[in-house]
Amino acid sequence: DTKIPGRHFIPDRGFASIGYGLPGGMGAALAAPDRPVVAISGDGGFNMMLGELETARRTGCGVTVIVVNNAASGYVKALQHAMMGGRYQSADLVEMDYAAIARTMGCGGIRVEDPEALSPALRQGMEERDRPTVIDVVVTRDPAQMLPAVDNRTVEIKRGDRVA
Questions:
Q1: Does a structural domain hold residue 16?
Q2: Are the C-beta atoms of 18 and 50 separated by less than 8 Å?
Q3: Which residues, 6+ apart, have CB-to-CB distance to 65 below 8 Å?
Q4: What domain range includes position 63?
Q5: Which of 51, 100, 136, 156 has a 20 to 30 Å separation from 118 between CA atoms?
Q6: Residues 6 or more apart from 126 whose CB is under 8 A from it?
Q7: Model confidence over 114-147: pLDDT tens digits?
Q8: Which strands, in side-by-side order, build the sheet including 108-112?
Q9: In the beta sheet, which residues pair with residue 67?
């Protein structure tokens, strides 16, 4: 709940920018080092910014990064599923263990495969204040389950519909 005084949500302003999570989280954590900061990224976006994890480690940035790992460019794959009948083009990614990669880089790394383990992992990550922690959350690989229930790009537009 970001409506509680002192809590903030800093989005990428709705431009669907891929790769914003870690750099945005680093900026927030470096600007407010006494406050816990949690960044969220999909695995595709995290792949684009993985090198920034070294910068976060080197600067002692205590950001916690949740990687939503579905081994796909999930939004792209879900749209292809919904709009192209499951003909997938360049949507699947190699299965990666981002927690292990983070540990190799000297960061904290926790892999979550059971939903019950997410809360303790998040608590542990937020307690780590002198280095980044990556929480690699393994989620569904089913493209039919990747999009929220309502997405205007999958709705058929009929003549006379107002699209804007």
A1: no
A2: no
A3: 21, 22, 25, 38, 39, 40, 41, 46, 53, 132, 133, 134, 135
A4: 38-94+103-123+133-145
A5: 51
A6: 36, 38, 64
A7: 999 999 999 999 999 899 999 999 987 776 665 6
A8: 38-42, 64-69, 133-138, 108-112
A9: 41, 136
What is the value of pTM for the model shown? 0.79
Encode pLDDT of 41-100 as tens digits: 988 889 889 999 999 999 999 999 999 998 877 677 777 777 777 777 777 778 899 999
Within-domain flag for 90? yes
Residue 49 belongs to some domain of the structure: yes
Q: Which phi and psi (to 5°) does residue 39 adopt?
A: -105, 150
Residue in this structure with the two tokens 């599923």, named with its chain if needed: 81
Contacts of 117 (CB under 8 A, 6+ apart): none
Residue 33 lies in a domain: no
Alpha-carbon distance 50 to 19, whole Å? 9
pLDDT in the model for residue 88:
72
C-alpha distances in Å from residue 121, one per residue of 64, 69, 112: 10, 15, 8
- CATH number, domain with residue 108: 3.40.50.970
Structurally, the chain folds into a number of domains equal to 1
Q: No. of H helices and E strands in the chain?
A: 6, 4
